[in-house]
């Protein structure tokens, strides 16, 4: 029983990490029709910025208590700014050229890990997390890592915030209207481009937060971390339904649980294969994914 509880909670933690990455990816694609292959690079930027700050290079930041919160906020802010720069400098001129858009984001996705590797080396760096988050707590006989609860809580907060943004704010409604008929919204005097930049910033913030908290999950950061997580984020987005944030949340939970249980009860590494089989089976039954609709 304790093993099942441990696998379930750690699977939910892994699913939460996948959702933090996939939510921004799904939001950007669903609202802007941009397939952002540089999304993993934003995660890596957030992870390294958090590691740099928590390692004592940012005044007031550190690996314990409020200092770590400041480091996470710093990493998320850096990822947000990076996403805005990416949209303004690279994506915006290519909105009407999707082929070049994909090639450009792929290039950024390859260049950023190489740059991080050149600056800090290709080896993984230990992540200086708070001691309070490195322990465990008891649940039904299982010893659950505390940091899994942090990931689950962060993912739940992001899900609620995105749902409120899309359905309950003026900016969210403007973005949705701009996707349907950009010319009409522009004729009403609304600058759709600013709303699209905001969407990219929110997506980048979610990815950077995933990178910051992913350091807690893995205990280290490395240049290729964003690229490996991006693969599963795409799986989650496709399974959830392209553009559906709620579908991405459900799919992330399923992927995390399947991966954890399959890795434990079968040979190590077969969890990835189990996820691919799950993806294929779902698409055969529901080609549009779990929801197949926006948000």
Automatic annotation (TrEMBL):
Subcellular locations according to the entry: Cell membrane
GO CC annotation: what is one?
Answer: plasma membrane
Tell me the Gene Ontology biological-process terms attached to this UniProt entry: amino acid transport
MF terms from GO for this chain are: transmembrane transporter activity
Q: Which UniProt keywords apply?
A: Amino-acid transport, Cell membrane, Membrane, Transmembrane, Transmembrane helix, Transport
InterPro entries recorded for this chain?
A: ABC_transp_permease (IPR001851), BCAA_transport_permease (IPR052157)
Name where it mostly resides: membrane
Q: How does it sit in the membrane?
A: Multi-pass membrane protein
Query: Is Disulfide bond set as a keyword in this record?
Result: no
Query: Where does the chain cross the membrane?
Result: 6-27, 34-54, 66-90, 102-121, 149-166, 195-218, 230-258, 264-285
Q: Which family does it belong to?
A: Belongs to the binding-protein-dependent transport system permease family. LivHM subfamily.
| The protein's name | Amino acid/amide ABC transporter membrane protein 1, HAAT family
